[in-house]
Design a protein that fits this description.
- This protein is an alpha+beta fold and 389 residues long.
- The chain is built from 11 helices and 15 strands.
- Strands 10, 11, 12, 13, 14 and 15 form a 6-stranded antiparallel sheet that branches.
- Helix 3 packs across helix 4 and helix 4 packs antiparallel against helix 5.
- The two termini are 25 Å apart.
- 49% of the residues are buried.
């Protein structure tokens, strides 16, 4: 009887903010797997050109968020609650990840995720177009793709809504995250306009992120916010009516690791934004599965939509897919695919996923351990040989 040689243990490096909880969760998962501790390269060093890598290392990029000095370097503002600056953030972040890829490659190390895909994932217009071209169901959008018309302000929003026949849309920062700068806009035939958003507009016109969802009920107020956001780039999507659970609108965040849907959480809210930090609450996943079955659908089909969305980004090991269930629980669309969508503390893997009993970070470590050394392509998170989940 012959035995396959054990896979070499990766020497793991994470580019992240050392005190951040994301880095802590990943390090805990690495230690729990019996591996040597992770070496941390701070984002501050990376942005200043001081990150260093060594031959044979496997380098993971973690979110640069929740660190004021890093945010200042990326966005050019000292106030992390400000909404503006995402255009500059995008330019700085994509330039930094491209430089990191160069440094990692020159050092003879391997980067887990492809920076070119991160540049698409962090532009909602480009990501929407890629999903649509891959046949993944997405909400209709007049701003999808690199050749779509630019949204320079409220007048463009109105024109695109009229041309598309849309009366209810989400207006989003093209490079935003965590619902920052998102407006759920409603109009009617009588010219009434209102928007639901977490954006707070100060008397001097500056915009701030708030933990309280609010409603602006005049076109003047909505137009002022949109006009202030427009220089950073805007994306528009049809507002798809979502299914409900317990009288609250519901959607799901599904984590896909190495092509397999491994974790899922239901998010419910009384507002159009279901983000947990904006007052959304975790719903009942068992009830969702029962609702899908009761409507004549299959839960595996919903997960398949998420896996197809992840397949559109084969160079990214882990993504968080925002899955939008239509009223009736029969149809699903993908709202967004998030590069850093794995922060779901305490959530363990789905039955049959291969990640049972593991949180999202432990499942990613398992994926790295199962990576076939001779199939690594250098900058991608997937492998072309052995399955890694």
């Amino acid at each position: 009887m012959t035995h396959s040689p054990p896979l070499a243990q990766p020497r793991l490096v994470v580019v992240g903010n050392p005190a951040n909880r994301r880095v802590a969760f990943f390090r805990d998962a690495v230690r729990a797997a019996g591996l040597p501790d992770v070496r941390v390269e701070p984002w501050l060093d990376a942005l200043r050109g001081g990150a260093r890598f060594h031959p044979g290392e496997t380098v993971r990029l973690e979110s640069p968020g929740e660190e004021p000095e890093v945010d200042r370097l990326l966005r050019g503002t000292d106030d992390p609650t400000r909404v503006e600056g995402t255009g500059r953030w995008y330019e700085s972040f994509t330039a930094a990840t491209a430089e990191l890829a160069r440094s990692v490659g020159e050092a003879g190390a391997v980067l887990v995720d492809d920076p070119a895909e991160l540049a698409v994932l962090f532009d909602k217009r480009l990501a929407h177009a890629r999903l649509r071209e891959a046949g993944v169901p997405v909400p209709d959008s007049p701003t999808s793709g690199a050749d779509a018309p630019a949204v320079r302000g409220w007048s463009d929003v109105c024109a695109l809504m009229a041309e598309s026949g849309l009366r209810r849309v989400f207006v989003k920062l093209a490079h935003g995250s965590s619902a920052s700068g998102v407006l759920a806009v409603e109009t009617n035939g009588a010219g009434r306009v209102q928007a639901t958003t977490s954006v707070e507009r100060a008397p001097d016109g500056r915009l701030f992120n708030s933990l309280r969802v609010r409603r602006y009920t005049t076109e003047r107020e909505v137009a002022a916010i949109v006009d202030a956001l427009a220089p950073d780039g805007l994306h528009m999507e049809r507002w798809v009516p979502k299914a409900a659970q317990g009288g609250r609108v519901a959607d799901l965040r599904v984590v896909v690791i190495a092509g397999r849907a491994t974790h899922a959480v239901v998010r419910t809210s009384r507002s159009p934004m279901t983000n947990l930090h904006l007052g959304g609450t975790r719903g009942d996943l068992g009830a969702v599965r029962a609702a899908v079955a009761g409507a004549g659908g299959r839960w595996t089909d919903a997960l398949d939509v998420c896996e197809r969305a992840a397949d559109a980004f084969p160079g990214t090991q882990c993504v968080g897919v925002d899955l939008l269930p239509a009223v009736g629980w029969r149809r699903f669309a993908v709202g967004e695919v998030n590069a850093f969508g794995d922060l779901l503390p305490g959530l363990t893997g789905l039955p049959g996923s291969g990640a049972e009993g593991q949180d999202t970070y432990a499942a990613q470590v398992s994926a790295l351990l199962r990576r076939s050394p001779d199939s690594t392509t250098g900058s991608t998170g997937r492998t072309t040989g052995t399955s890694i989940v």
